[in-house]
Amino acid sequence: MLNRASTYTGCTIWMLPLLFVLYTSQAEAQNTDAKASPDTYSFIFKGEPIEYALQQLVKKTHMDLIYDPDIIPEHSVFSKVQGASPEGILRQILQDSPLDFIQLSSGTYVLIAAPRKKAMTGHLSGRVIDGQTGQPLAGANVMLADASGGAVTSGNGHFSIPELSSGYHELTITYVGYQAVRDTVWVPANASTSLDFSLAMRPIMVEPIVVDGIRKRLPASAPLSSGLSSAQVQEAQITGTADAVKSLDAISGISFSLPLADFNIQGGASGDHQLRLDGVPIYNPVSMGRMLGAFSPWAIDKITINKAGFGADIGSRLSGVVNLQQDVGNTRNRNLMFQANTLNLNARFDQEFTVGKGGPSVKLMLAGRGNIWRWYQDAALRRNFSNWDQLDPLLTIHLLQDEDPESIYTARDHDYDINYYDLHATVQIDHNPFHQTDISAYYGKNELKSDLFSENTALTSQGAQLFYSADNYDWQNTMVHMEHHWIASPRLDANFSGYLSRHRFNHSYLFTNNRQADISHSLMDNTQDVLKQYAHRSTSTADKNAMIQSALKLNLNYTVAKSYHLAGGLRGTHFDYRFNLSDQYYKSARSDNRSFLIAGFLQNHFMLSPNLNLSAGSRFTFVPSRDLVFAEPRFSFKYDAPDSPIGYYSAKLAGGIYRQFVNQFDVSNVGPSSLVPSLRFWVPVDYTTTVPKAYHLALSGRWEPAESWKVELETYYKWIPSRLMLNYQMLSDFGLYDRMAPYSQQEEFITSSKGYAYGASLSAHKRFTEIGLELRGSYQYSVAKQHYPRSFDHYYQPLPNNQPHKVDATLHWGPVPDLKLLLQWQGIWGRSWGFRKAYYDYLSIRKKSRYGDHTFTNPGGDRLPLFAQLNAGISYRLKLGKADLNIRFDAFNLLDRKNVLNWWLDPQTTNKGDLSYQRQRRVMNGLRPSLSLKLSY
Known about the structure:
Layout: H1 4-28, E1 35-37, E2 40-49, H2 50-61, E3 65-66, E4 76-84, H3 86-94, E5 99-103, E6 109-113, E7 121-130, E8 141-144, E9 150-152, E10 158-165, E11 167-174, E12 181-187, E13 192-199, E14 226-229, H4 230-233, E15 254-256, E16 263-265, E17 273-277, E18 280-281, E19 286-287, E20 292-293, E21 300-306, E22 320-326, E23 336-340, E24 344-354, E25 361-371, H5 379-388, H6 393-400, E26 409-432, E27 435-456, E28 466-487, E29 492-513, H7 514-517, H8 527-538, E30 543-561, E31 564-581, E32 589-607, E33 612-623, E34 628-644, E35 647-659, E36 662-668, E37 678-684, E38 693-704, E39 709-726, H9 728-731, E40 750-768, E41 773-787, E42 796-798, E43 805-816, E44 819-829, H10 837-842, E45 850-851, E46 854-855, E47 867-880, E48 883-892, E49 900-909, E50 915-923, E51 928-936
Parallel strand pairs: 3-6, 7-13, 17-22
Antiparallel strand pairs: 1-2, 2-4, 5-6, 7-10, 8-9, 8-11, 11-12, 14-21, 15-16, 17-18, 19-20, 21-22, 23-24, 23-51, 24-25, 25-26, 26-27, 27-28, 28-29, 29-30, 30-31, 31-32, 32-33, 33-34, 34-35, 35-38, 36-37, 38-39, 39-40, 40-41, 41-42, 41-43, 43-44, 44-47, 45-46, 47-48, 48-51, 49-50
Helix pairs in contact: 2-3
């Protein structure tokens, strides 16, 4: 059982350093404009030019000060003055400068110059922020015009370029989706200057997708990751609603397991990546039976995807990391927002204020999402559930062991209960220019219940006639995160953070028939209730998973020289977890334990030439239960040519070693009417199994022959010598209802496998600014295979979620400012594992594994037909006084195709009395319209 009290107490103790930082930083926050008393004033100067400081002094104190502008030196002021007289402040400003002052009998102050030595170098630092929201832009490129140096902003938008020759320097600041800024700055001698730069968003209809590792940047940029903007996150998806998780489908290398919100990254398994919210792992990022993502899209500011070859600072995962960043109080698009569609309701509230007089400024965001199933049941969704929630003949026969193989099951009554909601909150506190605190929280609840009453309609069957089944799922996620940004010096900035993430999952399954309940097969009014009561008395399943993860982290970024940047970090993570598999069709397995990890990283960024950048480093993880340290060295080279004869082009080569210390496992849900295909749980590795390991090598490139053209290419290869997977032979190695001692060690039901993956993708983007038209197209090729010990004749088989060929084409058109049109087409070829996954995991290991002409020993040979879908949408913004009303209509699957998701086998008796098995299709909905309304003011 989880010791929650000890875990929360430990996490609270870890938070004490953060609270101390918050207290001290708030104490430093002073009002630079307010008077401390009638004759005293308070100022903070953080590297401003001395002339600017003198101007502020005169402006606020009305001091009578005169000077000759020609004597103003190359000097920056770093000073904090509280409750001082104007003359005292003037002395502080002039301290360490070659200036002095005299006071005339009239009271006027006059600056005078003194001899000084000529200095040669100085330092430049500052921040890059969004001009509208004031939010820091991480990864913005700050480049000297002569290409002699540059920097990339850190997570809080801070940059530093040291050892510059004193004098004027021209800078160029670039960031994808924003207008480039060119500015001239003054670098003082033997001193530092600190400046803020604001960037304005580029006025295009939809912000662009950024390819992994490549952004259009000037030389000396550091490699970065893929990303999605809030505009793309809020695009309607095939479910008829905007979905933060499913919006990832717009990224090359991301493939979804149709129709679920489960995805993989570049040929990885579904458990090889990690999804984070504000950097915090979320262990059940789905809702509505895994058909939707678990977050309100209106609470998400942007999404960052780290694919093959990601850096040591990102973490330890076999395939990649996806981070969803919650928005902070953003009043540029109104303070209140309400949105409704056919599935759920969304709301958001934003506010910005200052605490007290001269206190810290605060930005607040609250958002929520809830389903409307109890009031309105989407017809297409209910039709899908009814079609999918049917007793599977093969699974029913084998699970009950006494069924007639000629049974044909017809549903007589369906009942579903869907309930999910998500709550988001963020707070950003700006104490002063050097200290900022971010606090965020999330809570999500997700329930799915189904009741199915069926009848055996086969006239020749001698089996049971009436069946009752119920499937109940309950997921909960909680997250609290706190992070403090501190600019310690012009060269050094630091981040302190801590978080708590809690996941809980409960599942129960009931199944019985009239034979087991010993009742008549005749249909009486209360037959369903009698079967239901008997099922509750006679069957007991309790599949559970709980995980409480808490961590404390420190990251440092230090600029050693204008061509060398060093980053490092240290993290301690505590796990308190419980796993219990108590299904009547699998042997019980249990695990209840605690573990602790200590991880650190060191990343070096070098500018080898004006066009070539090298990043090299390693991650180190100490596992106390094994008394071992695991090293993960990584590297990347990036070359930029911004002014070549063929336009801008860039290329990046990256790779390294990647480990995984928390693993996801999917137990196939063999319940014959289950809506959710698998029971998912997470456990840290114990000492009985190997630690998964992968090698990455990735090459990506970008070419822009003109400002309106963009072509991107990425390729990758992954070798996975160790990946953990479930051992279904061991889980199924017992008689029905046999309750032997449960497995308690992971090695008893988990085995190690190996695999490989490689692929490539090509995408193009053309923008016609004059007519507001954008065209996008992409093709991706993927091969991902794995060895399955003791299964499938020991051959390598494709991963179940692999999509070998995928083509996407999109048209966005804004003929007028308030009207937008959308047309999308997607085609997928080569999907395998054509039958229900439970057939391959459960039936293929039975003694009888042949069903007519069908066996389930070669899933790679069971190829599904082409998946193709055309979607269209139109949206219009209507101004209603101070409010905006956005109306959007979408038509999904416009051509009304019956795309096949998988197959199942239907046993039938031939004219000769032989038993044959007919392959039946499980399909997605045809044409599906969707309407959504959004009101903001």
